[in-house]
Each structure stands twice: as C-alpha cells, then as structure tokens.
Amino acid sequence: MRAGRAPAQGTVRTGPVSLRMGFAGDEFGYAVDLGLPIPQEGSLFGRDPEIKAESIWHGSVPRPATALAERIGPHVRLRDDGGWTSADRALAPWESMLDEVDSPEVRAVRRALRGWRFYDHIRADPESPVRAAEIGTRTPVLASDGRDLAGALQTIREIGMRERLDAAVDEAFPGSRLDIREHDGRFEVTLAQPGLLRPLSAAELSDGTLRYLVWVAALLSPRPAGLIVLNEPETSLHPELLPALARLIGVASRESQLVVVSHAAVIVDALRQGGGRVAELRKVAGETQVAGQGTLDEPSWSWPTR
C-alpha cells in the first residue's frame, strides 16, 4: 500500500487490544499497558479498560537490570537491596500500582506525574469559565481549563514575576494595563487599552486576547513544573501576538521542560533559534512518523510484557 501498488486491505487482528503509554527521564521511567477485560457474564463493564502490566525502572532506558517495580495482572513485585519482594496485596484490574503501592520509587514517579501540566484546549466561547468572575484565592498553578485565570494572574503579581507579567502584556498590547478587580471575594480580569473609556472585562475580551492571557498565567507560574505541554497555543491568536508568545515560552523553558505542539511557523522558528529541539511529524499510510527518523535513530525502548 505504501508503494502505491495496491489498495488498503483489512486484516485479522493477531494480538490483543492494547493501549501502551510510557515515559523515560534521567532518574526514573514508567510504562503501562491497558487492555480489555476477559468477558464476564452479567457484567456491563466489558469495554472498561484494565491495567495488564506496569513497570518502573531506573534511568532513561528500560532493561531487566534497571527494573525497580513490576506489575503483571494483579501481582506487583518490588526490588530492594535484597532482591525482589511481592507487594502486600493483589491489585484490582482498574487499580494502578502508582496509587496503591508504597515504595520510594513509586512515590517519586507519582510525584513527578502529578506535577506535569497539560493545556490542551482552552475554551473562549461566551460560556467559558475563563470569562466568569471567580472566588479569589492564591493560585500558583493555573487549572488545565484556565478557569482560575484571575487568581493565577494575581498570584504572579504578588509572589511571582510581576515585572515580566506587565512586560508580557505590554509587549502584546502596547500601552495596555492588566488589572484584577475584587468584589465580595470574587476576582475578575480586566484589561485597560488605549483609546477605550473604560477597562474591558474578561467577558468582553476577544478570544485571542483572552487566550494570550491564559498562556501568560500558565507560563509565568511561580511554581515551575517538571513538564508543561501546550497544544496549538496559537489558536485564535492574532499573528502579531505570536512572537510575544514564543518569547514567553522561551522564558518558561528556563525553569521547566516544555513540549509545544504547533502549526505556526513563527513559533516553531523562534523556538528552534532559541535552542529548542524540533520534531516534524508526518502521516505515512495513516501512521504518524517523525520526519527524518530512521530505525537506528529511534530511542531505546521496550514495553513491559503481560
């Protein structure tokens, strides 16, 4: 099919249904294998995914010698100085050893994963929670949907990078001033712009302006994350805002590892010039591949066995 000599043909599945996810870092790596349960009479959860296998290892390359914790089916075993020992109880198919097993290595991976931040889709429609006033509280980490935007911006102003916050707003909207209004314990974002007789509230801002303020709050967080993932942050932004956004990403990358999925050449080129690593994805016969990556260039990896 890839050579263009024949149409796509369906085949019979030879392996089990499986969704596998994992990561590797300098200290620890983790992988999980999810699959479908064995059909049981009387159960309505026949499509509820089960955890078939999990693994934690030391370092960036999974090998038997570096394994620290392994789970196959309900059984978990942990490695210490004396060798392998079994966990004190079997796990249900829907339970992860990250939640139910206690060991230094499991705690370290759990803490790392809980610190990651994913900003995939920020609503900007009239009913978006980002546009509404909210109960004001210190917010060092912006929520994944941006609903606590006012609290996050005020937290940056009081205990974070106040000067960088004001500079990021002025760079994108010259002469504008960001302010957080408080009324009966509720916070509301306002933006005063040259030529307007009064500041605009979050409910009145354009989609692009609102989303830019969300990225400001996410990237200037006074509590840097180990990993921040931004999915198409250029959505709804005016092209003139993209250089300012790229510089914001560069500032955040000094404290956190960032993964940015973008179709905007301005952002990609700016990140590349700033020392970022660019991986271009392409579709080949329905499969997503990294452009220019050969078999020998792929990172060393192996999935846990069931």
From TrEMBL:
Keywords: DNA damage, SOS response
Residues of the ATPase AAA-type core domain: 162-269
Keyword Secreted tagged: no
InterPro entries: ATPase_AAA_core, P-loop_NTPase
Pfam families xrefs: AAA_21
Gene3D superfamilies: P-loop containing nucleotide triphosphate hydrolases (3.40.50.300)
Keyword flag DNA damage: yes
Protein name: ATPase AAA-type core domain-containing protein
Organism expressing this protein natively: Pseudolysinimonas kribbensis
